[in-house]
Design a protein that fits this description.
Blueprint: H1 20-38, H2 44-51, H3 55-58, H4 60-72, H5 76-80, H6 85-105, H7 109-131, H8 134-137, H9 143-172, H10 174-195, H11 219-239, H12 242-250, H13 254-278, H14 283-299, H15 301-304, H16 308-323, H17 325-336, H18 341-368, H19 373-390, H20 396-399, H21 410-416
Subcellular location: Cell membrane
Protein name: MFS transporter
Membrane topology: Multi-pass membrane protein
């Protein structure tokens, strides 16, 4: 595969050639799938009014997408089989485009939910295959930066995707936002077909005593998945309903909410890259700081988010904290299962999206019932903080400084280097 200049990329002796445009294309794919998934966040009020459902019920458009992605993602490696990963990614992006077009046309709520089911299938597949591609596109020394760039698509989706969807709705209605997402998916599919190299399925990893079991057998993998579940559930219990929460607490209109979401997203991009730099050497500390920051930001919304200035400060703090969760958790899991990255990533995507569905569902119940979703989100983030501090983190040889992983020191590490036992 040649780059856009027509010259073959230089291939260092210690890894694959450097393909910056390919990495950017994969980042564009993560941006597109997450934008498609998150669009209802800024559109719940107009969707509910148009299709005659309440805000809690409209939140199911997010819940069902996350649930379908969670159920389907662990089966993606087996379903794709020996197919070239470039071909599979292009096909999944086209499925995403068709799903967004169906959502734009939906004449009633059941059809919209059906469209969101298809979005979940496309999103789960793209995310599972894309998340672990960095080692196949850049030399080993650049894998960390490339992985952060791939996951920056998630943070940038918060910067541009959700706020632009909100602005498009204000200009032309919520259906225009879904139609624009469909067009973006088609453009990214075309870019992947041109810029990605052929990505044939790799041989199954060699299994030794350390990697024979499924990744879920490793305590550090299980700890990472629990942290991911708690953080993402807590976040989406609140974030799914951020528009009605801000409208109620601070009396903000659609334009102000869109501006705050933009500020949140910009902070999320910064959080993504800071966490991407920190996580390889300090996975426990990174996720602990992110969990603590998220808990503090959301719990203060009812008391201090009652003015535009107060809401802005809290949204920026929230974005900084949550922006690093995806890359921080993915880095934790890749370090925990280095010989089985694709299956570990499938678990991560499944848990992540299941947590999105659970968070949106739980937040909807609280929103339509007693209220107080920020307190639910803060409690779950606090539980994630405790799990990060107490649970097993990746081994020293794969994750950097020893003191970040095993508080008991070298003697403890020597007795726990094999993680096949119970957590």
């Amino acid at each position: 595969m040649h780059d856009v200049s027509g010259k073959p990329p230089s291939a260092p002796a210690d890894g694959p050639p450097r393909r910056p445009f390919a990495v950017l294309t994969v980042a564009a794919a993560t941006f597109t799938v997450v934008t498609s998934e998150m669009l209802p966040v800024g559109l719940l009020t107009p969707i509910g009014a148009s299709l005659d459902v309440g805000a809690g019920t409209a939140g199911w458009t997010l819940t069902v997408t996350g649930l379908v992605a969670a159920v389907s993602a662990p089966f993606v490696p087996r379903a794709v089989g020996r197919a070239d990963r470039r071909t599979a990614l292009v096909a999944l992006m086209l499925l995403l485009a068709a799903a967004n077009l169906l959502a734009a046309w939906a004449p009633n709520f059941p059809v919209l939910v059906g469209a969101r089911v298809l979005v979940g299938l496309g999103m789960g597949g793209v995310w599972t295959l894309a998340a672990g591609l960095a080692p196949r596109l850049v030399p080993p020394a650049s894998v960390g930066a490339a992985t952060s760039l791939v996951f920056s698509g998630i943070a940038v989706a918060s910067v541009l995707g959700v706020p632009l969807g909100t602005y498009l709705q204000a200009l032309a209605g919520w259906r225009a936002a879904f139609a624009a997402a469909a067009g973006l998916a088609v453009a990214v599919a075309a870019a992947m077909a041109v810029l990605l190299p052929r990505l044939p399925a790799g041989r199954a990893p060699r299994r030794d005593a350390r990697t024979a079991a499924h990744p879920i057998a490793r305590p550090s993998v299980r700890t990472g998945l629990v942290i991911t579940a708690l953080l993402v559930t807590g976040h989406f219990a609140v974030y799914t309903f951020v528009r009605p929460v801000l409208e109620e607490s601070a009396g903000l209109g659609p334009g102000a909410v869109g501006t705050l979401l933009l500020a949140y997203g910009l902070a999320g991009v910064a959080g993504n890259f800071v966490a991407g730099l920190r996580a390889p050497g300090a996975p426990r500390a990174t996720l602990a700081v992110l969990a603590g920051g998220l808990a503090c930001a959301v719990v203060l919304v009812p008391a201090f988010g009652t003015t535009l200035a107060g809401a802005a400060v809290l949204m920026v703090a929230w974005g900084l904290a949550y922006g690093g969760v995806s890359v921080g958790a993915q880095t934790w899991l890749m370090a925990s299962a280095p010989g089985d990255t694709e299956r570990a990533t499938a678990l991560f995507v499944g848990v992540f999206n299941g947590a999105i569905a659970l968070g949106a569902f739980a937040g909807g119940l609280v929103m339509d019932g007693p209220g107080g979703v920020p307190y639910l989100g803060a409690a779950l983030a606090a539980a994630a903080l405790l799990t990060a501090l107490a649970g097993r983190a990746p081994d020293a040889a794969r994750s950097g400084p020893a003191d970040d992983r095993h508080p008991a020191g070298p003697a403890h590490r020597s007795s726990t280097s094999s993680e096949a036992g119970p957590a």
